[in-house]
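Extended Data, record Porin
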Amino acid sequence: MFLSVLLQSGVYAQGSADYGAGLKVSLNPEGSKYVRVLLWNQMWMRSIQNNPGTLVNGEQANSTFDIGARRLRALAYAQITPRYLVLAHVGINNQTFLNGGAAGTTGTGGYGAGKKPGLFFHDIWSEYAVIPALNPETKKANKSSLSIGAGLHYWWGISRMTSASTLNFLAIDAPIFNWPLIENSDQFARMFGLYAKGKLGKLDYRINMNKPFATKLAALEGTAVDNNGQSKMSYGGYGMYQFLDQESNLLPFTVGSYVGTKRVFNIGAGFYHQSEGTKSLQNGSSKNHDITLLSADVFADMPIGDKKSNAAVTAYSVYYNYNFGPNYLRNIGIMNVGTANPDFGGARALAGAGNSRPMIGTGSIWYTQAGFLLPKDPTKEKVKMRVQPFAAYTMKKFEALDKAGNYFDFGTNFLLDGHHAKITLQYSTRPIYTAKDNINGTKGELLIQFQTYL
């Protein structure tokens, strides 16, 4: 019964009373033994102002319009006893009309560019509850809990948004720098390792020891790059104190917006450390550098006004301090279809072609987002759609760039049935660096997302 309530609360937190227990199969009459499956897709339609000197499929392109798959996923987990849980999560990401296909897909034809992407495991881990959330003998909730697990997992901080669920973002997506090792020394924000998670009263915690994936970029003079040799173990964790309603930590995925169904106020902090994770050349000699990543954040989500109107505010702010070694910088463009034009004679963007931007680096990042769920009309109970405008701001100050960068996002969620069926409209801007000390204006990107999950 406790597990059923826990699952129901997680379901209703997505803002739909019709969802019930979702795709759940009970294996005993009490519902304490079960298998649950989640399926979701996020399709993006975009109009992008490309960086200067961009080619798309060999043609000069100042702008690009496309439709593609940001995420297509399936997740299943099973609880056979109160102490054992196993989870598997597979899917694809970032498939466009031009790229994102399986390895080797190129050109024209059945295995042409962008086609038949490779399905892979995002997560596969199992855990054992040393101190279950519910005492199996007294059937009462324990004040503290502890579970340990192993596998390809997502239980590793360093902030709330580093463990974000992709199903219930406030904005159209995560800002990406919240996953500081993305697709370098991790596998799509996951690593093989051991973790412990649980609660101490109102303190929710997770700690881990992982084996980072191997990296081997060529060392550069005075600039750290990902090159970790035999890859020393990494250590990390995140804790958040939950002042108001307590959030479930059955799974690692943190909620971005509860759309008026909870009163949450948390403060948190996290860290990550790996010795000799990057390498540079100093006067021609190779030198190793540690990776040390720190964060502190605050999250608030609560109803306001008359209860029947169900209006709510959501706000999140996080500060990251990243140290990857001297002048470390990664440029990333999500679902980037652009490549550099070798014949372009103008001022190029340092970040590269398409929608690429300085994403992650040694230095600091401050990110803040806020949204407001507009009140509903209590006299129109059959109208399910809710409207949730939002805005986000990012300031990045990287060692490799002399000027700080300012990034803005504005948008609205049209919640057709909570997060289970929604359309998100967002406009984003990014600065264009043509030199480390020069920003030559901004470029924009208009996105529409169609999301469904069950």
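Summary. The chain has one domain: 2-453.
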